[in-house]
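Input protein
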Amino acid sequence: MHMTLDTRSLSRIAMAIACICLGAVAARAQEPSPATLAVARDVVITKGATGIADPLIHGVIESVKNSFLPTNPGLSRELNEVATVLHKDFDNKRTEVVDALANAYARHFTEQELKDLLLFYKTPLGQKFSKEEPAAIEEGFSRAKTWSDGFVDVVMSRMRSDMQKKGHSL
């Protein structure tokens, strides 16, 4: 059982990790109230961000399993069996991921802002935004990479030219 993640899943995992890290960075801020955390959790659920929990949990389990395979190739069947059990045993971990995301939101938005976001995500536009945002982010990353690839050539050429003027050939 070899795991592959599509770009959308990887994008969601990256967003989840970024959100979780943002929560850690913002630790200097005051602890959010239980009411703020509850609204933040509703925002996370309503906006559909819970969809990143399963690929994240699955990805960690598969990554750990795959880290053992190169040095233990004869244990492939047994490692797959254990991974299957872990997927079932750790199914409840999605709540922890959702709580981590909610905590990050609660640290960056006031309770009223979260209530306003919740109202937005319940509108048709908010629901469309939730559905289309991952694709828009994925496309944005792709376009940014294309731009970056072209920009590398411009910078490389300029760097060589400027260094040549200084008597250095790169």
Notes: The radius of gyration is 22 Å. Residues 131-170 form one domain. Confidence is low (pLDDT under 50) at residues 1-5. The helical segments are 7-25, 34-46, 53-68, 76-89, 94-108, 111-121, 124-165.
